[in-house]
Specification:
heterodimer, A: alpha+beta, Aldehyde Oxidoreductase, domain 3, 4 helices, B: 83 residues, Ubiquitin-like (UB roll), 5-stranded mixed β-sheet, 28% strand
């Protein structure tokens, strides 16, 4: 499967073994749980089973057509993630650099605002809150 | 018609459960929201701000004015925060 949603951790380097044979350019992006304010204990990510897998597959298919990709991967975790853990990755393989970069950027913009995931921050003090969507993420989609 | 209605994130918390089976004649998602809002205070809180509401019909993102005919599963949730 080119698109995966999973509870388990993944190893970004291991995911690339054998990926994109014949390509001239490989681009990967990995998102990591970060602690901006010094109070984050973990993220909890909820998703919509069924719709999520379908949405990620659609995004990948769209990117493959638009940027003439040789191959692509999307992996996104759900459940509880500790600070420093990889949340998700995209990988794109194309004949040339620009298409691989643009396709990865395109996939990230769609993942941010159109894939049915919701992040909840769990603080070290035990307080929890849903992360609000950013207007800048919505605006980024308009580029495409 | 009978629909499965799913809720996610803070809409789920406000409604108090993740899914319910609903029998309705609502022609659009917007009409369904109006019916659900009347079900409980929790539903009313979940649907208080339609600008913060996103929805899907049969697992495809949909507008509030989308028709419900033939749809079997509807989901309501806040703006998505993946990536």
């Amino acid at each position: 499967m080119r698109a995966r949603v999973q509870l388990d951790a993944f190893d970004p380097a291991a995911e690339l073994a054998g990926f994109g044979a014949g390509a001239g350019a490989l681009v990967t992006f990995t998102g990591i749980v970060r602690d901006d304010g010094g109070n984050l204990a973990a993220l909890e990510i909820e998703h919509y089973p069924g719709m999520t897998e379908r949405a990620l597959q659609d995004f990948g298919d769209n990117a493959a057509r638009r940027f003439d990709l040789i191959d692509w991967r999307i992996i996104h975790r759900h459940g509880r993630l500790e600070v420093g853990a990889p949340i998700m990755m995209v990988a794109t393989a194309a004949r040339h650099r620009r298409a691989a970069f643009d396709a990865a950027d395109f996939l990230m913009d769609w993942l941010k605002s159109r894939a049915p995931f919701w992040k909840r921050e769990i603080g070290r003090d035990g307080r929890a809150g849903w992360v609000a969507a950013k207007d800048s993420d919505e605006d980024a989609l308009a580029r495409w | 018609m009978t629909l499965e209605v799913l809720y996610f994130a803070w809409l789920r918390e406000r409604v108090g459960h993740p899914r319910e089976t609903v029998t309705t004649d609502a022609p659009t998602l917007r009409d369904l929201v109006a019916e659900l809002t009347a079900r409980s205070d929790g539903h009313a809180a979940a649907f208080a701000d339609l600008a913060a509401l996103r929805c899907a019909a049969d697992q495809q993102l949909a507008d509030l004015d989308a028709p419900l005919e033939g749809v079997r599963e509807v989901a309501f949730f806040p703006p998505m925060t993946g990536g």
